[in-house]
Amino acid sequence: MSRDSLTITDNRTGKTYEIPVTDDTIRAFDLRQIKLNQNDFGMMSYDPAFNNTALCKSKISFIDGDNGILRYRGYPIEELAERSTYLETAYLIIFGELPTRKQLEEWTYHVTHHTFIHESIKKFLDGFHYDAHPMGMLISTIAALSTFYPDARHIFDAESRRKQTYRLIGKMPTLAAFAYRHSLGMPFVYPDNELTYPGNFLNMLFKTTELKYRPNPTLEHALDILFILHADHEQNCSAAAMRNVGSSHVDPYSACAAATAALYGPLHGGANEEVLRMLMEIGSIGNVPSYIKRVKSGEKRLMGFGHRIYKNYDPRARIIKRIADEVFDVMGRNPLLDIALEVERIALQDEYFVSRKLYPNVDFYTGLIYQSMGFPVTMFPVLFAIPRTSGWIAQWEEMLLDPEQKIARPRQIYMGHDQRPYVPMDQRS
Ligand code: ACO
Question: How much distance in Å is there from the Cα of 357 to the middle of ligand 1?
């Protein structure tokens, strides 16, 4: 008997099965041979919310949640935040290696030359109410891109995939900035190719009457690092959505719109928006203990705390705390920071949070930084979606090129009625 196997005895039948173990994992399909009789469908595993199910084999991000480690393609997030740029990191995530100087120049050139959006997209934006949430506008306009680029259907053509990659990475900031300007009723600002990726984004958001917008270097740098930290995070809800929807072989814009929709939720990319609302609701340091009490009684959730994978301090949150200081030096201290620090201080020594291993996650401090930089809270998840696009594209491509992958089609355990006859209206109670 192989040592790399699991021996399962089915006590219902007394039969024993040997299931191979590879990479500490068994294949769920190997359970199917475990049957009561020949007519039995076979054993399945039940895993609501995929708590313990590997969706794929991946080479993109590595997370060790117990030790607070995150690496992209093997490179520690701390080193990338210190030494890389978002565009370079996006290249690494999508293509698997850090670019040479020439590769980076070409990549930057192509992304920069795909930042313009079709003028008709502006008409879609005009159709939205002035108070439409920018994530709603972003999701819709990303989906709309597929109608402008029908060539994106050719998902198994490497050349086409590369083109859609330039377009998606290049156009996300433009769509996001245009959605923001629409909500303010301000004219759209076109991309400026002389600026960096984050610098141009700030230009499209905040330029008013100046002839040439010059981004504040500290804010530009801070945004670049925040983009690096948000670029990928293995099989989270939105990456899984990208893979799931993409597995039907739809074009990448439609899949990316679905991933963005997944990110919109308050338990995922919408959490930083909720953190800020929570800090405003707490209102003062003195109110923190009573708020924590409400969290512990189950009345509230402490937004920006806890993570499905990290059962230790989120390594991104540590880096973000440092950036916050740099931004506050330029923009002034965010008054909500003191409340946040007090929440963290109390929570980290409270038995409720300690025993459940609930630590600040990436979203706990990002909202404060974004607010200090002048972003309204509704833009927070948008600021997450822009850099995460590189992760989504990498996950999508890895899924497409994996010969083991097929259209995603989970199973269910049916718990509803057995067959029953149709009841006419006058006989229903
Ligand atoms: N506040 C209070 N209690 C919490 C919190 C929280 N933020 N998070 C988890 N718990 C508690 C749960 O009530 C549960 O307690 P119990 O065992 O007594 O029932 C226990 O901790 C385990 O929680 P789960 O819900 O099982 O953890 P799960 O892995 O499903 O949830 C999640 C992870 C969704 C991130 C959760 O921690 C949460 O809702 N956090 C707040 C939202 C947030 O910050 N999301 C951003 C995540 S990072 C990202 O997506 C970019």
Answer: 10
* CB crowding 250-276: b at 16 or more within 10 Å, else e: bbbbbbbbbbbbbbbeeebbbbbbbbb
Q: Which atom of ligand 1 is nearest to the CA of 49?
A: 30
CA of 339 to the centre of ligand 1 (A): 20
pTM for the whole structure? 0.92
The number of residues in the chain equals: 429
**How many angstroms does the Cα of residue 361 sit away from the middle of ligand 1?**
10
Summarize pLDDT for 5-36 with one digit per residue, the tens. 999 999 999 999 999 999 999 999 999 999 99
Residue ID of nearest Cα to ligand 1 atom 31: 308
| Chain position carrying tokens 């993409």 | 246
Give alpha helix (H) positions in 149-207.
158-184, 197-206
Give the whole-number percent of the chain exceeding pLDDT 90: 89
Residue with CA at minimum distance from ligand 1 atom 10: 306
Q: What angle do CA 187, 379, 51 make, to 5 degrees?
A: 150
The pLDDT assigned to 84 comes to 98
Could you tell me if 155 and 181 are in contact, meaning their C-beta atoms sit under 8 angstroms apart? no
For residues 231 and 92, what is the distance between their CA atoms, to the nearest angstrom?
Answer: 10
Does the CB atom of residue 363 touch ligand 1 within 6 A? yes
pLDDT-derived band at 194 (thresholds 50, 70, 90) equals very high
- Over range 108-121, report the average pLDDT: 97
Cβ 296 under 6 angstroms from ligand 1: no
- Ligand 1 atom at shortest distance from the alpha carbon of 295: 2
Helix axes 271-282, 336-348, angle to 10 degrees: 100
Domain 86-403 in CATH 1.10.580.10? The answer is yes
Q: Where are the domains of the chain?
A: 86-403
Ligand 1: does its nearest atom lie under 6 Å from the Cβ of 268? yes
